[in-house]
Amino acid sequence: MDQYEIVHAGVRETVPHVKEGSAPTGETDAVAALKRRKVLIAVLVVVATVAALAVTRLMTPLYEAEAGIMFNPRELTLIGATTQQGTMLPSEETARKNYIAIVRSRGVAEAVVDRLQLDKLPEFNPTLRPPSRTQVIVDEVRTTISGWLGPVLDYLPDSMRKTDTSWRDGELTEERLRDEIINRFLRRLETSSSDASRVIGIRFLSEDKQRAALVANTVAEQFIIRKRDQELAGAEVLSRNLTQEVADLNKDIQDAERKVDERRLALGIHSDASMKALNDRMAELGRQLTAAAGERVRAEAEFAQAQSVRGGGDAGSAAQVLGSPLIQRLQEAAAGASSRVAQLQLRYNDQHPQLIAARSELRDIRGKIAEEVGKIQNARHNAVAIAKANEAGLRQQMDQLKAQMARASESEVDIAVLEREVEAKRTLMPQLTQRLNNANAQIDYLRNQGADTQVISQAVVPRFPSHPPVLAIMATAVVLAAGGGGVLAVMLERADHTIQSTSQLRSITPLRVLGTLPVARRRRRSPAHSVVEGSDSAYLEHLRTIALRAGAAGPAPVKVLLVTSSVSGEGKSTAASSLARMLALSGRRVMLIDADLRAPTMHKVLGLRRNRGLAEFIQEGLGLDEVVQRDEASGCDVIAAGHCRGASADVVSSLRMQELIGHLAITYDTVIIDSPPVLAVCDAHILARMADRTIMMVRWKSTQVSTLVSALQRLSDDNVPVDGLVLSQVDGKKYSVYGYSDSEIFSSGFRKYYTH
After folding, report:
1. pLDDT tens-digit readout, 567-625
2. How many angstroms separate the CA atoms of 453 and 227, rounded?
3. Which end of the chain has the least Cβ crowding within 10 Å, N or C?
4. How far apart are CA 314 and CA 334, in angstroms?
């Protein structure tokens, strides 16, 4: 159903209900919450500012003096790192941190305290300082609380029950007192330095301005003295270590050289020429071995040829293979003898003496050839044996020479390692000597000139105290108070479960929202008087809108209109009286009935009598003309509540009441009934069934969400229809800045429409 649609009397929502899952809390927009609670935030800021100012007035003022020192980043190499070639000098940042640590060291603090006798001053010695007024008050409060909580404190450990008051009672030991004095001194000492600067600022806070400058300058002087002593001691230690290392290095070089010579003598190697001779001998043996191997191969080939000839083959091939002239002549003789044998065989038989002689000669020649071949073979076999023996001898010499060279090479490796060690130590010797000279030069420089740190600015006596920082403390208090106030505002808004806007009403229930009813300008007078006087046009315009949407105005107005609420104090009587007067002033005949018989207020609002009213009309049977009163200001007829005897529900549910409503609906243009709250009694449930329209008033930022939900659920359980809701007593100025979806209805731009 559209919220701007005018629903006629015959059409009603039968059962009002609440949306499921509707949030029971109000809107929590952070910006709107800050705007709504700006007064609270402002009060917190003012209180925090005043408190911060009061606290600064209770603090002891301290004066700050600053001295400046500048350092040279020259640093000695660390002791024990003399042989580490890759060691890097410390950076300026490291040097600066080291210097700051020295400035804030307990050694410097003790030296300054002893030199200036600060332990004799109450500012640093707690036993000499009388308790302050604040401390006395704190002690009195602690004593009082301890007296109240005495039985409880008996069960606590001694460490939790006792308070350390030994400083004021003079029970501090000398060691603890000394430690406390140094700690108080260090708490007053501060240092500062930027990353791109070699200057260190030394600041000191004191209750006395002269003492602040004196302590700052003394700290700078003590730092320079301790820095010089520290560098001098380090340089002397480094010099002694370097001297010892130089001596040890000389001894190591001599020992290494002696080991090299001893090793060479043991191997018989006196110089590089010996190794060259071994290499030349090895080359010569290689050449001889190669020749011997070739000779052996040639002898073996000739021996194989001789073997092949002896094993078979003709004489011609033997002569060619063996290359012997004698064999060649014998072969020629054998050929001639063989020719003669062949000729004789043709002429003679086998027994012929000439043939026998020829054959015998041939055998002799061949025997000589075989004998000569055997000799040659034996000679070549001997040549093979001799070649193999020569080759074996050369190989043995080669192996012996290789073994000798291997032993020499291994020794040369060890000797080379020893020589490299000697060379490395010889190379390191000039470096150590140079560093020793530098260390000695630095010792002389420190003894004559001092450390490379100087005071570039002396601390001057300050004119004004620098502590406590009043502006910083007050600014912090303002920021914290504003932040805390903002958080508190948001928390309060989250904890506020009241109805704050019409959009919230629509999120809770699907019922029509008829509009808002602002607070009247003149709060001391009833809004009903503003309707008559016409002094609050904004209130009248919102009231006319509600009447139009509720159907009480327009071409076909409803006859009976019931106005109720969840609880009392939500403005139902004010809205009913204002609506009745407005309609009456517009020319309609209006009857206003005060049906709230338990707590009637209508007669007070309109200035009428209560003695005769609705209760007397129902219970005593009085006539209508006897109970109707006239509102002279608007012309509206009114029936007051009267004095009810018995249950009010019996009165409003009677047949005479129904007849009265029916008669008035015929006689008057509009009948407006002011009923009791829904959650108080069941009268509204009964009267709603007699009315054409039922309006429920919801007070802005007063009615709880749970209260409204409970009332709507009760009406829903009884099947009582509700036709609309009105958000009453709205503060237009606050509503316009809350950021609601309909905040524009109270904006300043609409004021021109509300002029009188």
Report:
1. 988 989 999 999 999 999 988 999 999 999 888 988 888 888 888 889 999 998 888 99
2. 8
3. C
4. 11
